[in-house]
Amino acid sequence: MLDQVEISEEQDAQRRRDFPVGAAVTLADLEDAGREHVLDELRQVEPVTWLPALGGWLVTAREPARQILLPKSGATVEAEQNMVRASLGRMMLTVDGEEHERYRQPFEVPFRAREAERLFGESIRTYARELISRIDTLGDGVELTESFAAPFAVGVAAQVIGLPLDDIERIDGFYATFAAAMEYTGDPEPVRRADDARAELTDLLLQGLSRSKVVGDSDLTPEEVAAQLRVVMFGAIETIQASVLTTLMLLVQHPESMAQVRADRSLLAGAVDEAIRWMPPVAFMERWTREPVTLAGVDIGAREFVGVSVIAANRDPEVFADPLTFDIQRSNARHGLSFSSGEHHCLGVHLARMQTVIALEEMFDAWPTIDLESLTAPSGFAFRRPRDVVVRLG
Predict the structure, then answer these.
(1) What is the set of domains in the chain, with CATH numbers?
(2) DSSP state, 149?
(3) Which secondary structure element, helix H or strand E, spans residue 86, and what is its range?
């Protein structure tokens, strides 16, 4: 396990002088709603920069971001300081090479595009309709996070994994706790709470492994299977809520795009891809260098922390024309890094896209009009989505 190098005061001071724009960026700039423009401005002048607020490097341009995520970069996720590992434990996202392949391979087949649709498509649609039918469209506005997005994400996760996870609020709370621990603040309390949540969730998973639908033949121990299911569920819960709510938010805010999607549902998949590019559910990724590496002309030493701002990389004008515009017919929307790249690319990418499209199709079928009353704008350091989305339904 790699241990991150400690930078001397003199090195830090020199890097602050060499990268003055990055030196002025705060953690709030990476987390708060409405601060995305800071990352856009940073990318223009220092696409790879020293960020004292993180105690490491930050990449905001797409190509060097993609480069550091690929195995050939020599970078690793196996570091003592990895907050994903601290939160979710040792599993496929926090190991590399043969161990990563051993953890991931038993889960590959059910998440392929055709298999995901065959195994889960109809049950996902049925469940979406059931949730929508419970929503009272009369009277005051409807808050969609609690009434639809959270139960939809948790309920489908239960179907996918094959577990009777009936307590939606409890399960959603586990993953909110895990997400809160994935921030580089130095506060040990969120990690302690994640430890408790992980132990409680693991007990639930171990009780129901015989019913799981996504585990192939393998030599994994029950505890190792449960560890992989924890991260599979993370993708099925936290990121699905984000993709559904963000896509709906953007379509409601762009009436012409909404009209086009309602008239031609084949455009919906592109709208989902564009929404995920424009505001990625996973906003930040991390790596550590095993050996020195050069990114966009910047030399980075061994055992250093390198963070990737997915938000900024997904808005790189070198790749995406007019990147701040929400364009549901953008031909290269999938070139964003929302689902990572390389060996750690998202296992459930096909399921996530299908699930989001189904949710929105069923909403549009049920509700001829959807008007936005209020929302809390997308925010979050590692994971980002709108919250408290209140709509008036026709």
Answers:
(1) 9-393 (1.10.630.10)
(2) I
(3) helix 83-88
